[in-house]
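ugh ok fine here u go
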Amino acid sequence: MEFLDLSPLKSAQGSVRLPGSKSISNRTLLLAALSQGTTDIRDLLTSDDTDRMLDALGILGVGVEKTGERDYRVNGAPQGFVNKEADLFLGNAGTAFRPLTAALALAGGHYKLSGVPRMHERPIGDLVDGLRQLGADITYLANEGFPPLDIKPAQIRAGGVIRVKGNVSSQFLTALLMALPITGVETTVEVIGELISKPYIEITLRLMAQFGVEVKREGWQRFVIPGGKHYVSPGTVFVEGDASSASYFLAAGAIGGGPLRVEGVGRNSIQGDVAFAQSLQAIGAQITMGENWIEAKAPTSDKLHAFDMDFNHIPDAAMTLAVAALFCDGPCQLTNIGSWRVKETDRITAMATELRKVGAVVVEGEDWLRISPPAQLTPNAVIDTYDDHRMAMCFSLVALGGVPVRINDPKCTAKTFPEYFDVFASVTK
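structure:
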C-alpha cells in the first residue's frame, strides 16, 4: 500500500485557492445536460467523481467539450438523452449515481448502472421506491435495495404526490427534484420523517432556479415541482470553491496559529458547509469572512473549547471537527451523524478506530461519537483511510500536534481534491 509520512508540524498560515465544489459541479453538469441551449461551466472540479459524471454524459450522447483547464461547454439535450441504451460505471460517486438513476428512470431507455464494491453497499432503495411510484421500471441486479441497477423503459405517470424518506441521504430527494421537470407535469414530493443535510437540498433548489425551474418549498416536508417548466441554460455558470474542502484549512489555521485564508467561498456561498466556520468560531477560533473568502486564526486562549454539537446539517465537514477535537480542552461530542454510516465507508466506525490510534478515548454510538483528547498525541500513528478521501484529509491535521503521522493510500483524495497534500504542505511548516 502506498503511504505518505507527514513530519511534525508547528504552524499553518497562508492562503489557499479551493477546488470547485463537488456537489455544485455534478449537479451543474446534469442540469446543463438536461437543458435547452449551451452552458459554459467555469471552474469545474477536477476529480474522480466529476470524471464519472462526464464519462456517463458522454456515453449517453451529451455533447461535452473541454474549453479550458477547468472549463467545459455542455450542449443540452432537452428532448432526452440521445443514446437509449448504455452501461454506466459510476465508481463511488454518489453525486453522480443517485441523480443519474432518477434522470435515466424517466428517460425512456434501457440502462445499467454500477460502481465499485462500496457503492454496491450504499443504500438506494428509498430513491428507487420513490421512482417506482412514478411507474419507473427498476430492478436490483444483486442485493435488494442496493446497486447495481437495471433500468428499463416505462410508462411514467407523473403528477400527484411522491413520498420519499429523508433520513438516510438527502441525495435521494435531490435526485427526484432534479429529474421531475423532465416530465413537464406538476408533481409534489413529500418527505417522510426528518430530512438530513438540508443545506444540500438548498444547493439543489438554487441551481434548479438558475436553470429556470423554481420549486415551491413548504418547509422541509413538501416540494412542488411546477408543470410546463423545462430547464433552460443560463449561459455561463461559475462553480464555487468547495466548502467541505475549506474545512481542513480553516481547522489547520485554528490549530496551527494562522492566519490561514481560503478563497472561493465566503458569506455569499450557497453551500451549507460554510457553517463549519461558525462551528469553529463557537469553539474559540478567530474567524473573519468576506464575500468570497474565509480566514481562521488560533483562539486567544491556549486551546480550542470542548463542544457538544448536532451536525445533521453539515455531516461531511463535521468529520474535520472530529479530528479537531484532539486539540480541544475537554471531551467533545458529535451528534446526529448517522448518515456517516452510509458514506464512502462507515465513517463513524472508521473515525473512532483511527482516533484511538493517536491516543484519544472514543465512545461510538449509532449516530454519535464522544472523543476525549489525550494529554499527548501518540507519535508515528499509521492511519488507514478506507478509500475515503475525507479520512485522509482530516487526519493530516494530526501532524499539527507536533507528531509524525503516516497516511495510508493518500491518493484516495483524488475523489475530490487530487492536489490536497501538496496544497497542505504549502501552508504548513
